[in-house]
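QUALITY CONTROL LOG
STEP: pairwise intake check
CHECKER ROLE: data steward
CRITERIA: each record must contain a sequence immediately followed by its structure tokens, with no blank fields

ENTRY 1 OF 2
RESULT FIELD BELOW
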Amino acid sequence: MWLQSLCEYLPEAAIVVLVCYGIFLFIRHLFELRCLPPGPYGLPWIGYIPAFGPSAFRQLDILHKSFGDVVCFKAFGNTVVVFNSYETLYEAAVVNRRKVGRWTLSVNDWLAQGHGISNYNTPRAVELRHALFRHLYGHEHMIAYLADRSENNKLTAPIRKEINGLIRELEDSKQTPIKVMPIIRRTIWKIMWRVVFGTMCEMENGEIEHILQQISCNNMENTMLQASQLLPKCILPTFKYFPYIQRFFNVDKLTERYKVIHCTMQREITKSMEAGLSPESLLYRFTEDDKLKLTPTELHRLAFELMAAGSDTSSLTLTWAFTYLAAHPEQFNDTVNTESMDAIHRYASVVPFGLPHIAQEAMTVAGFHIPRRAMLIFNLYAVHQKQLSTVWNVTPPIPFSLGARSCPGGRFANKLLLDIIQSVSNRFNIEAIKENNCPHPVPRGLTRGPAENYFVFHPKMAL
């Protein structure tokens, strides 16, 4: 009898429970909205449209000035939180490091096909990242290079050889305007090749310049704040079968350039693998790691990311460094030191917003509620601009970002950049050539293009 009565009232009870649960979720949502950082309102689901596309950089700067150090807005159903100061960025990336992971950009996922370490937050990506730290910085020659110990070091001599080659090309310009980017790219590429493959790069200079130009174009156009990067992953397979969808989302040119880069890199990597990897190479150490069990696809993708990302950002930083040296010659009467490099990194801000992160758990930053699965953007450019306007800087530059997802190659890149800039500064006074008084380019993508392209290198008088 009682069972029959229970069944009669069960539908009503279920409805009451569901209604109460819905009210609870709504109240919790309102509470979270009140605790979110300030920011602009946007269209339902679509979000704050001005923050998308080519004007994203300017819009984030406007939002920073309007709403402060932590800004929040909606984008295609996602909560986006931007940290604009060193203090808030440090609290998010370091204090809450276990709660922060990598946000997977949709277009990058489509291109990488699920492989690599820079765009993913999977356990395998984290494992590969840890292995990269271990094999890059645990090798005796890298340890010696970072410590400036050149005796019997098989890494220092090849790096010095490439730097000397760069100096000779600058001397051969005979104090006439020269476009430095192609020369810098070749130099960095050949050094990175030595580290990754352990051998001399046999690619033609023209081919190196072409592939790095394709990489640079993709990085400068492929912004994180565009509709295509926030598409649901289930839509991505349609790119393969419906090219017009690629064109609609402006992914077609990115895809074409990526195919050129990928095919060239795959050919060269396969050639090196067939010839036998050098025991001095980073890839060899990966293949000998029995615990890692690296697949051929993972090895190819790892080599691709190391060569592409490392060469492009380092080349851009050097070009910005030459602009800074030309504008502040009084700071470089003596040799370039750590303080000089800090100033150059602040001035360059080559990756102005880093790569996007994700809040793996809800957290609190600067008193604001940051919801789970929010996209986190670290405004490195704003941090560096504030540091440049401050006479005494108590916070360091963060060109390689902060926290558990900072650039793994940062230590090596900083040492290499210091060596190159020291060599150039010791030999030349630099003059930047303005092209029709063009202003500095406004960043549109993941990287920030060079301020100037042409320079004159005047040899310093020998003492």
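ENTRY 2 OF 2
RESULT FIELD BELOW
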Amino acid sequence: MTGHRPKEWNKWLALAEFWYNSNYNTTLKITSFKVLYGYDLPQLTFELLAQPKVEAFDQVLRERQIMAKMLKENLEKTQNRMKVNADKRRTEREFKVGDWVFLKLQPYKQTSIAVKKSLNLASKYYGPY
């Protein structure tokens, strides 16, 4: 976000904080805002502020719209790059009825299958099925 305008990062700090607090936290399974205040953050859109009355506010609004567009484009590029890299390691597999297969376990989910003293020594695959 600040790579394009490194000397203007302090102008975007409030927007970055807003994004962080309104973003879904996978560990908490909820947004930081909801944890803190107990209700969901109302979604703000730039269209609601379409009729600015002050020229300085109009300039800030235009800059934020440009920044939001740039963020969206950067996120799409990053998601596409991550998908391409993930797809490089994937191979198409076909299984027939009667084939023996192993299921790969996720370390954090593995504890429900078998309790081990050390997860490092636990099996990575479950099966065969």
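INTAKE CHECK: passed for both entries
DESCRIPTIVE NOTE, ENTRY 2: The mean pLDDT is 76.
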